[in-house]
Structure formats: structure tokens, C-alpha cells
Amino acid sequence: RLRREAAEYYRGHRVPERMEEALNALFPLCPEDLYGELANYLSKFSKAAVICKLVGRKVFNGVGQPTLEVEIYCTVKNYEKRICSAVMATHSQIPENALPETIEADEKERNVSVHTAVEWVNESLSTILRDLDPTDQCQADKMLGEYFANKVEEKKEIEKQEEGQEGEKKKEEEAAKVAPAPALRPSAPASKPKKGGKGKKGLVEVKPIPPAEPAEAVLCGSLAIGGTSLAIAKAGAALRHVPLYLHTALLKHTQETPKEMTLPLPMVTLLNCEKNSPTKLKLVKEVMLIPPAELSFKQGIERVLDIQKEMTRLLESPSKTAPTVKGLSRLGCLTTGYDSLEQLLLQMQIACNNIGLELGTDMYLALNCAAHELMDYGKEKYEILTGTFKSPDEMVAMYVEMINKFPFIIALIDPLRKEDREQWSSICCALGSKCYLIAEDAATQISKLKTDQNINIAMCSGIVLKYINQTKVSDLIELTGILDGQRHITILGSPDGESSDESLVDLAVGLGARFLKLGGLSRGERVAKYNRLLAIEEELAANGALR
């Protein structure tokens, strides 16, 4: 009876037929590892791998801060197998000159957020995503998005209840007190319009600057969403036996294999100019090098390293005019400061000339101005140098003069706050054909960009996207599609709390990003990403797929 049932079972699964096909196919080849070839042949008839569990754990990023790692385990040919893991980078909204108590509060909040993210992964998400095919990124991200939306609603409900309880408590306290007679207050003086210049008739009213928009609220535990989405993308690529950059390209282009792929141009941070340093220049936060597009990535990086060595030599020279080097930044570059933009750019030109290179031909510059950190809200002006202030309109005029004087600057990142929309339009009209005007912190958060596709995009050349918090792989695919359709460029950027995970590079290549902003060439977690881009370049070139 058992033999009969076994025979029916095997016949029902066409085992004898498949074995005969396999043996007939393999006999002419006479492979050295016959059973290995048989396993390979029959494996194509096995069931697709599915997720069996997720494991979340607290790890540390490149600057020693806690972050989340997500491991994916799948059922593959009836066995539980660890497929891959993803480690999330973290992004801090705390400014450089924050008070110690603010930094301490941020560290506590970060620890709680990572702890919550680990719980989400190990408990809820592991159960929700069980038996899901990891190659189905769209379905996985949809489920992650629904889970996150429910968590947001739960948080709102809790806050609403807490507000109600506080309101009742206040009413009870007010009822217990005898209300005093209302005191007569002098009316607020009417704001006087500022006088115009000499010879002008009447008074000119100065338009106040738009107030700063509140920072994007980050839900505690949101790292779990981004970490799980990225881990699933990596698992999907591993199970399809393709690199993550190709898997990402297939997801973006609806499973059509691209014939050629382009590498993003690197924006390599050479100098980090601290805005709270004793030097005067506050306008520039990062000085970045962009190699010419006609060079290979390998040639470009070698040229950047030559400039970096010469710049380091100049900065460390005993000259009285040389700025002081304060050490290595978390961005993987030298930290220093200057007294003027001209001093900075002159030294850059000298460094290039010393090794036979010319800015504007052999290398280009990008400046990250981080204008949101410059605004003095009391004066309603940007402090570009210590004690030197400019209005938003004056900033536009200053940038126009700068680019005309130094045409080797081909990109400005965050030249204005995102709230100065009129000035963004003005600067794009004036300089849009001469350099890239890129929004990083000045860009609207990803969730709003997806719901309102025109918000804050039309006023810049492109935006820096960062894979942080609840961002999902599908979000990047959707958003880069929107940017491509509107002829805006995509820059994938590395946050300040970068991890050892190299996936950002694969995502940038697969999504067709124009630039990749990874920081400097002096920290392991950042250099690993440049090395990954070198490997991808070699692989694409070997396959004849490098455009």
C-alpha cells in the first residue's frame, strides 16, 4: 500500500518524467559533479522562497550611535535559511551648535526609537510578512505602509486622549480659583514701516520673511519600516541571483532589463567648514569635488585623492595664512574654517594648480550652503560672515555674482531656506542654466512630495533623497519616476550617521541617480560605498552594459 501511495505521489508531481528529462539532458555533458547538476536542474521546479521570519537587533552606525539591523530568513527548499541583512543609516536634525541638554535628549530619544523599532520587527512585522515572496517588493512595501499608517493613527489617538485629560485638569484648576478682574492692557504699538532711502517719497514697508516650517515629525520606531523594506529588496536580489542595483532597475522599469546603465557622478566632500568655528565664513558648510563626466569613476576618484592630498599638505603647512585643521569630520573629510569665500576658493585653485589641474576643466566644485542654519530670525537675515547679514533677495544677487566670478562652481545645495519660495524662483531663473540648484534640507519631506508632486520641486534643479526612517524602496522608485518625468535630477545622499551597509550605492545606480553624495574618502563606512561603486563599474564594463 505504501509503495502504491508513494508511486502515485511521485507520478502526481511528475518526478519520474522530470528525472528522465534531467538524465537525458545531462548525459551528453557528463558533468564532473553529476549530483550537483541534477540538483541545479531540478531546483527550477521547487517552490519559490518565502519569508519565514525577520530578526531585528540594535547595532551601531559609523559614529557610534545606535541604529537598527534587520535580518531576513526565508524557507528555501524546505529549510530555514538566512538570506541577508540591512543596517539603517540615521539622520539627526540637531544643529552643530546645539546645547548639551538638547544633544542628551536626542540621544535618549534615539535609543528609545531603536528599541521600539526592534520590537516592531521581531513581533508585528515578522508575523505580518511571513509567507511573503521577497521578490514582490510592491506588496511588501504596501503592507509596511499600512502598518506604519496604523501606528501613526494610534499615536494621534493617544495624543488626543492626553490632550483631553490635560484640558479637564486645567478646567478643574480654574474652577477652584476665583477669577481676578481683567487688567487693562496697553494696546500693542502698531508696527512702523521702515523708512526708505534718501530722496524717496513716503515710507517703504519691508515684507517680513516667511516663518520657519516645523521639522518633520519622526515617529518612534519608524526605522523598522525603512530597514525591513531595504532588507526585503536585498533578499529579493539574492534569491533572483542578481545584484541589488539590477534588481532595483528591474523594479523601476517593470521587469525590463536595461541594456545599459549609467553610474552617478560622485560629489566627494573635501572640506567640512564648521559654522560655529571662530573663523568668519559661515556661508559654506561642505566643499565637494565633482570629477568631469568623461572620466571613469576610477579615474575621477584617483584625481579627487590627488587634490585631497595636496589640500591636506597646504592646510597642515606652518604658514600663518593657512586655516587651522580641526581633525576629521563625521562626513569623512577634514574640518576647517575660512574668513572669506575668496580665501577658500583661492586655496582650492592653488591646490589644483600645484598638481597640474585646473578648476572648471579637470575638476568642478559643489558648495553645500545649508542656508537654514544661517538665518537670524531676529534680524530676518542670513548671516553669511560673522557680523555680515543679507536679506533673501540680497542672497540671490550674491549667488549670481559668485557663479559669474567662479564658474567652476557647478552646484549649490540649499542656497536658501525652503520657505523663501520667491527667491528660489528668482535664483533658478538667474542661474538655472549655469549651475545645479539643489534642495537637500530645503526639500519637502518624501511623504508630501508623493502626495503633492509639484510642491517645492519646480523651484530647483533637483533634490537630495536620503534613505532614512520610514522611507521604503518603493517610495524612492516612485519619487525618482516623478523627478525623471519633470526633468529634475535625483541625488541620493548619505546621512550624517552613516552605517556600513553599502546598499545606497546599488539603489543610486538602479534608480538612475545623476549624483551620489556620500561624504569624504576618510571613514570606513563611507569609503566602503566608494569601493562598491568601483566594483559596480567594473562589473558593468565587463558585461558591456556601462553607458
From TrEMBL:
GO terms for cellular component: phosphopyruvate hydratase complex. The keyword Lyase applies. Residues 51-248 form the Enolase N-terminal domain. Residues 177-191 have a biased composition (Low complexity). Its EC number is 4.2.1.11. SUPFAM superfamilies: Enolase C-terminal domain-like, Enolase N-terminal domain-like. It is an enzyme of class 4 (lyase). Keywords: Glycolysis, Lyase. Residues 260-547 form the Enolase C-terminal TIM barrel domain. Residues 157-176 have a biased composition (Basic and acidic residues). GO terms for biological process: glycolytic process. It comes from the Eukaryota. CDD domains: DD_ENO4. Residues 157-206 are annotated as: Disordered. Pfam families: Enolase_C. Pathway: Carbohydrate degradation; glycolysis; pyruvate from D-glyceraldehyde 3-phosphate: step 4/5. Belongs to the enolase family. This is Enolase 4. It comes from Sylvia atricapilla. The lineage of its organism: Eukaryota, Metazoa, Chordata, Craniata, Vertebrata.
